[in-house]
Write a structure and sequence with these properties.
The chain has one domain (3-72). The protein has one helix at 56-72, and strands at 3-5, 11-16, 22-27, 35-42, 51-55. It contains one helix and five strands, in the order βββββα. The protein has a five-stranded antiparallel beta sheet. The chain is globular and about 40 Å long. It has 77 residues and is an alpha+beta fold.
């Protein structure tokens, strides 16, 4: 994934999921703490979707589950 800049100058990486939906991860403009936007920008039918607004702690919790999925093919312990 390449990191680009939004029109407002925030870093963003765009990618497609398994169903070829347009997705992204982007630094947030939130002023009081670091956060990122992650999720589907438009789904495979072209409809708009929603992104999650995650703090560093929330992202860290997801990383452990994602790493388990990478290692084992499941999020189960």
């Amino acid at each position: 994934m390449e990191i680009e800049r939004t029109g407002r100058g925030f870093p963003i990486a765009r990618f497609r999921d398994l169903y070829r939906s347009e997705c992204s991860i982007q630094d947030s403009s939130l002023a009081n703490q670091p956060a990122v936007w992650v999720g589907v920008d438009s789904d495979f039918d072209g409809g708009k979707s929603a992104r999650m607004h995650l703090t560093q702690d929330q992202a860290a919790a997801l990383i452990s589950l994602l790493q388990r999925f990478i290692d084992k093919g499941t999020i189960l312990p």
